[in-house]
Amino acid sequence: MSKIKLGKIKTRAPKDMDEDTTKKKLDGIISELDDLQNLLYAEHKHSILVVLQGMDASGKDGLIRNVFGTMNPQGVKVQSFKVPTEEELAHDFLWRIHRHVPEKGMIQVFNRSHYEDVLVTRVHGMIDDKTAARRMEAINHFEQLLTQHNNTHILKIYLHVSAEEQQQRLTERVELQEKMWKYNANDFAEAKLRDKYVKYYEAAFDHCNHIPWHIIPSDQNWYKNYLVASLLRDTLKGFKMKYPGLKK
């Protein structure tokens, strides 16, 4: 299996893709997703876990709002994982994650995830390589548990944004009133560690690949949204779901 090298993967749509045409296609897919999510909830046999990872300002929040925000809120949950609390640190690193995996019939979105524990922890020297290897092995077992024992389909998505676009978006958080609420004083410092993040992301891609990663070009939000919505639509269609009949 060839290794994923982010530096060789484009962050923008192909030049021959038309933005307006793609947005119209996206509208149709979003409509399909609403129906498919309802069917998923009614049949109650499958669940979907969407793992969203990416650099700061890669567009995770916007993607969640634009692709998942129109579905029935009874069937979609979103969980963000920030710096672990004191209680969470007193448990194994997957404890806080496992509490939020989806039950059958549900779509669960992780805005950052268990992968932070083999990314930011390595970038900042909180764990050594041996510990990281053990954690990645545990992640593989954890994901296999969900897929094999609870019929959960996991979509692992990395939003691939260029360094230039990332800097522009971070700057907008300082300059634009409507984006200042996103500002974090540490964002620019973290962006300077981009090369380290790339290194450890690629290590995670390489060692945690039993369930494949989807690298989504994310410099253009319309293209990013279209790709992820298409992926989710195709996954749901693949379940070949049917509405259940009357209960006897």
Can you describe what's shown?
By secondary structure, the protein is an alpha/beta fold. The chain has one domain: Rossmann fold (3-Layer(aba) Sandwich), CATH 3.40.50. The protein is 48% helix and 13% strand. The protein is built from 10 helices and 5 strands; from the N terminus they run αβαβααβααβαααβα. It has a 5-stranded parallel sheet with strand order 2-3-1-4-5, sandwiched between helices. Helix 1 packs parallel to helix 10 (221-238) and helix 2 (60-68) packs across helix 10 (221-238). The longest helix is centred in the N-terminal third of the chain and has 25 residues, at 19-43. The N and C termini lie far apart (49 Å). The model has no long low-confidence stretch (mean pLDDT 96).
Say which CATH homologous superfamily is assigned: P-loop containing nucleotide triphosphate hydrolases
Give the number of DSSP strands. 5
**Rg computed from alpha carbons, rounded to a whole number of angstroms:** 19 Å
- Head-to-tail CA distance between termini: 49 Å
Topology as H/E string?
Answer: HEHEHHEHHEHHHEH
The proportion of strand residues reads 5-15%
